[in-house]
Amino acid sequence: MTAALLMVLVVIGSLLFHFLNPWRITPIASNWTFIDDTLGITFVVTTFGFVAVILFMAYCLYRFRHQPNSRAAYEPENQKLEMWLGAVTTVAVVILLAPGLLVWGQFITVPKDAMEIEAMGAQWQWSYRFPGADNRLGATDVRFIDTSNPMGINPNDPNGQDDRIVTNGDLHVPIGKPIKMLLRSIDVIHDFYVPEIRAKMDLMPGLVSYFWFTPTKAGQFDVLCAAFCGIGHPQMRSKIIVESESDFQAWLAQQQTFAQSRKADAARTKHATASDQEKPAREVQQ
Amino acid sequence: MTDAAFEDDVREPPPAEVEELELYHPHSWLTRYVFSQDAKVIAIQYGGTAIAIGLVALVLSWIIRLQLAFPGAFSFIDANHYYQSVTMHGMIMVVYMLTALFLGGFGNYLIPLMVGARDMVFPFVNMLSYWVYLLAVLVLSASFFVPGGPTGAGWTLYPPQAILSGTPGNDFGIILMLASLILFIIGFTMGGLNYVVTVLQGRTRGMSLMRMPLSVWGIFAAAVMALLAFPGLFVACVMLLLDRTLGTSFFMPSIVEGGEQLKYNGGSPILFQHLFWYFGHPEVYIVALPAFGIVSDLISTHARKNIFGYRMMVWAIVAIGVLSMVVWGHHMYISGMNPFFGFVFAITTLAIAIPTAIKVYNWVLTLWRADIHFTTPMLFALGFLVTFVNGGITGLYLGNVIVDVPLSATLFVVAHFHMVMGVAPILVIFGAIYHWYPKITGRMMDETLGKIHFWITFLGAYAIFFPMHYLGVVGVPRRFYELGETSFVPASAVALNVFITMAALLVGFAQVIFFYNLYRSYFHGKPAGGNPWRATTLEWQTPETPPGHGNWGDEQPVVYRWAYAYSVPGADKDYAPQNEPPSSRAGVSS
Asked: Which chain A residues are within 8 Å of B371, Cβ to Cβ?
């Protein structure tokens, strides 16, 4: 009796919590409203299943509780009923799966006109790279990484010279244009995660992964790492700023190209080595 | 050789065989209680060790919860400790507690008794299995005391971070973890072969496969799966150990760490994930299938009704076992593997929901027109149903590849797997202990304490993990030592975290009631008799309680019927033990 009642209360409590709690999915800021729709369908179908099963159970607990002289029925199986239940479940699974797979099909089909942006993860910071006027990103390799080339861009690849790079900074993107994020890590596994965009993907060292989205809402959103990447994992942050095309172009023009950063760095190194060479000279004099 | 001599050989076993049986009986305290080859003693050893190390994992979960509710408030929890606690809690609970307790504990106790065997078929190997397991637990525990502490790589131990300096415990902790897992798998393989061969070869006369109790079916299927799945983890551990100690590059591509090029080159971190989850997903069902089996028997016995659709239940176990070997990729939807795999693994994963749902229907349909006794084991079985259905349906979110994308790596995942493979199987373990304790000790556990323990544990655990899903929906990522400043998490989430932590502490401390009950009942419990639950299965029909060595006295039982002859129309009592001769024959003999 008590058990039946408490089980009903568990169901009612769960439903009330679902409808009354203040913890909701974030307002979407990308084209992936279909993902939210699929989530919605899944919620309706599964809630129906949960409520039906537990309430049926609670009813049985009340109705068939032990009473003096009561005796259970004997029914080893009922193949017709089992077939029906199996068929209904199969239909429910198809209702969940079919839209899910359709949306997944879209998710992995990148529009041809998508703008390519590279995000690079390193313990524990984000860097970004935009193709220059040639619209092509230069080749990269971990072996090219040094202090003057933190993203490991191949210095001999002409495509890479005009790439604009943002090291350990924020990402600006234009609103309304499809973007293909190319994801690369130079050390451990990271994951480019912006809750409002819905899409996310790992940065797997040794390969370049990707996903695409179209920003639909101007504003500033948190970029987090969603794959445990060591002790600094929670601090691996950046921001994505969705703005108008003109604002974006103005910002992009201010970012250094790979060639510029190499030149500036080379000048600095030259200066540094020059002063280094003076030191031993003085020592000799002494 | 004459024909007559040949016949004699068949009728009487050769004298040497009798000697061997004699040799194998314990002759001293040491061989009876410590280096015992009796599956029932090994079961208690496995169970005791698993529960002891499980308690360590329980305390670690408090560290996690305290940090999440009150970030920075406790000086003894820094980021290192947090990640070490998360890692050790997960690994201990999944492998060293749940797997060991279900297969080593319940498997050892129940298989020989339930199939009418005298013992496991390889008693010596069975004993060895436990001692290797104990060694694995000790090696794992040692990592708490080495410089740098235990590994904090997360229980999935993903390279490259697991063996690089940015992760706590990357010097000795990770080596001990890998060594301990290798030992565990060696120990498990010895036990697992025993469980499988005993079920296939050791059944008594009349115990056909389709007369076996579902507990045995569940444990048997899980043991087969474990034998197929653990080698994946084994090779992954060996290769990661080589990467860490000898500098091989199985899982390590070219990497820059702290501005320096490491010597690794050409390895694949995603290969580790495939190997890990090739083990890791079947592992979920290695824990779940024994729970499915045991809960079927608890419900049937305490509802005094045959399990509904026994044959379908058996085939569902087999189907789940087979399908669960081909769904591992759903842990890797966002790993950067070929996106085409998303279609394949989403289909296999959601397909597994069908046999699983059929099991759920058959459990609740068993309650239909039953005669339900609200004993403590029954309550725990009902608690399992609620938490398993709840945790099972959220699997439909995470298995459906596109729905997984926003939810993966958030607290939704943590809530899902705790509900479905943490809370649900542990409720079955409690139910099973209350159910079989009378057979193991000869005394009943206290029902009042049992019921208090149940309601606090069940409602408390539900209060921990049900609301946690919603933090995941908001987008709160898992494995964050502190969330820090974000624009998307409302301040009220902190209040929810405090609530969850309070519930977790309450549930944790409530287990004192259980242990007190275990202890008190051992000395002061009501004497149980041989078959206090009026159950049909063979373990309740032993000549002695607790059963002696060899289980059956002079003669092994003969089985006449299936395990679920409850409330058969026309019978005078509401159960017919499997070994009770049919009434016609009973009439002749009396």
From this structure: 64, 66, 70-72
